[in-house]
Amino acid sequence: MKRDFIALLCLSCGLLVATSSFAQKNITLREDNIDDVLKDMTVEEKVTLLVGASGDLVPGAAGYTHAIPRLGIPMTVLADGPAGLRIQPKREGSDQTFYCTGFPTSTLLASSWDQELVETVTTAMGNEVLEYGVDVLLAPGMNLHRNPLCGRNFEYYSEDPLLSGKMAAAYIRGVQSNGVGTSAKHYAANNQETNRLENDARVSNRALRELYLKNFEIAVKEGKPWTVMSSYNKLNGDYTQQKHGLLTTVLRDEWGFDGIVMTDWGVKEGTVKAAKAGNDLMESGRQVEIDRLLAAVNSGEITQEELDRNVRRMLQYIVKTPHFKGYKHSNKPDLKAHAQVARKAAEESIILLRNEYNTLPLKGNEKVALYGITSVDFVGIGTGSGEVNTEHIANMQEAMTAAGFTLDENLVEYYRSCYATQTATEKMEGSAIDKRHRPEPTLSAKAIERQAKDNDVAVVVIGRIAGEGADRTVKDDFELTAIERELLQNISMSYHKELKQVVVVLNIVGVIETASWKHMVDAIVLPWAPGQEGAHAVADILKGKVNPSGKLPMTFPINYMDILTSYTFPYNWEMTKGKKGERKNVDYTQYYEGIDVGYRHFQSDPDVEVSYPFGYGLSYTTFAYGKPSVKATADGIKATVTVTNTGKVAGREVVEMYVSAPAGGLVKPVRELKAFGKTKLLAPGASETLTFEVSAYELASFNEKSSAWETASGKYEVLFGASVADIRATATFKMSKEQAWKVHDVLGKK
Ligand code: BGC
């Protein structure tokens, strides 16, 4: 086949139009002729396919790939997640709306500890992706919660890599069961928003392997995402998108990933290096990237083999997409049914942190004083690319009313009018209130005293919002604002004087300080940012229609500085002074803490107490754990434990299985989460036996010296806990022989 023709790139419309001076034999892409198509492609066509396109097939989608009509290659569409599909809800010239369901954010989904639930949620979510004509959902976000102040933590799952990896794998399976793709992001060590495009994360190989890559390893092996998104940041000196060891050696050669890697949405100088490293698609795509790739292919800097390798992967991706298969999307997903899925998911995930004197559940016939500006402006999701354009986000005022509570009408009106005034001012001043949550209006102590007499119970909603592009702060964000503190104090004093109780609802996108004020209130419910229906789930929990069963996917520290990573997190500009390029925690962040992240640190330092430990969450019932059994299998261990509902109402229990491993020449965490499960809804008196299987490889720790995963021989303790600090049953087993799995030492030194 002759290929000396002129290729015209029509970038604005995303089409590559080829005109030939020779009659072309018409070859069009099929699943089984990828190599033939590859042979027929011009170099121009090839490089164009490696760079993102712009388009308008689905308004609001984040990106596209190029179409090459001559070869039957369609344009494909990529749009954001993770709490649902992010597209524009309205289109010019059309009366139709294109709203998507706002599902619970990832942190709340992780709080369910329920992989089946996550898969159900994302099966519904993936249906919206398909029916709105999108090929890949740019999710799950799965960076580890290294520090509570990362502005995008709500898009991520946990401080623990196992929980994070399992949740991401379930997420991927659900979305992809619809025949659309996902993109596990942001690979890797993208743990802060400050200087997110350039920050160099300097991380030891052990911390990378055991923490920051471990969750991706699990997600890739168990979820098989179509795509992975390389992050903006650098890792040990190189941009992740240009790091061959990360994108090829580890991701593909070691873990068996066979999809495409795309860059996060910004171009770096090193397009050529990125392509060689195994970054197949440059998003969002610019002409300069096509030019660079073309020049490098012509000069031989990119070999034909490298070029074909990346293009082949793109073609393998394209043949899987709905656009290639000619799927006729309806633009009419069943939003009503999906709203129910979103609500159920929130119900199964919300955490009860405190419940003194069985304050909750309420009886349902109380007159409720509902406080807080967040009661009217509920935080369903978060800001930035993770935000979803939903038709409506239920707030606590409407949810409590719908659940049958009688609300103090004066307070309802007060907060509505404050909200209206703030919104008007916001419009006038053009201020971005959404960067931080809207200010809490003041209420006089006198007014609160009166309300305490008029009402039966106080429910105070405290809100926080955050998102892409900025990290949170300690003052007025991690910590309560002065107004919030005063409000809680006055409410606590007045209601307790009347022998009435105070419930707090934490509608927050990340961990906040709770130790200094939790004793002032009787109950605390933590729904995080629970999506469009989450307020209804909170109301059902307050009423006892739903028994809470979520548990914390991270630790709540007493003080911010109790967390080791706080010493290297840019929460305070003073810490970050210096010359550009050398600013500590801005230009580079040294992960001094190694693997001492989250509960791994708190468990190993018993002097530092926490406000709520990892894995913690209460129920309206109680559970007893039976005597566990742990047996060796051909490849690891199999453990079982029976859980019985010993209380008076039906409930579900999350069981966390930690392992304490013999040192084997390494300093190891006191215990590490190695498996978890959740019972079905157990009636009072009912039991369920949960089974956990863990392989020897999964029990291994990473030895930097030998660049190997090593499972030490000796006695292992297996601990079954209701949280990391509440171990209910233990067993031991003996590993007779050591095992090691050597891996490549390619990630750079810290
Ligand atoms: C974000 C990604 C997102 C992409 C496309 C980037 O700025 O970091 O998470 O998928 O934009 O919107």
Low-confidence stretches: 1-23, 431-435
- The CATH topology name of the largest domain reads TIM Barrel
Number of strands: 31
CATH superfamily label of the largest domain? Glycoside hydrolase, family 3, N-terminal domain
Strand content: 15-25%
Q: Which strands sit side by side, in order, in the main sheet? A: 3-4-5-6-8-11
Task: Work out the count of structural domains.
Answer: 4
Can you put this structure into words, describing what you see?
With 750 residues, the protein is an alpha/beta fold. The protein has 4 domains: 1-30; 40-325, TIM Barrel (Alpha-Beta Barrel); 346-550, Glycoside hydrolase family 3 C-terminal domain (Rossmann fold, 3-Layer(aba) Sandwich), CATH 3.40.50; 621-742, Sandwich (Immunoglobulin-like). Helix content is 28%, strand content 20%. It has 20 helices and 31 strands. The strands form 8 sheets. The chain has a 6-stranded mixed β-sheet with strand order 3-4-5-6-8-11. A hairpin with a 4-residue loop joins strand 27 and strand 28 (708-711). Helix 2 packs across helix 10 (287-299), helix 4 packs parallel to helix 5 and helix 16 crosses helix 18 (482-497). The two termini are 51 Å apart. Mean pLDDT is 94; it is low at 1-23 and 431-435. The structure holds beta-D-glucopyranose. Beta-D-glucopyranose (BGC) is lined by residues 62, 80, 138, 185, 264-265, 385, 468. Beta-D-glucopyranose binds next to loops.
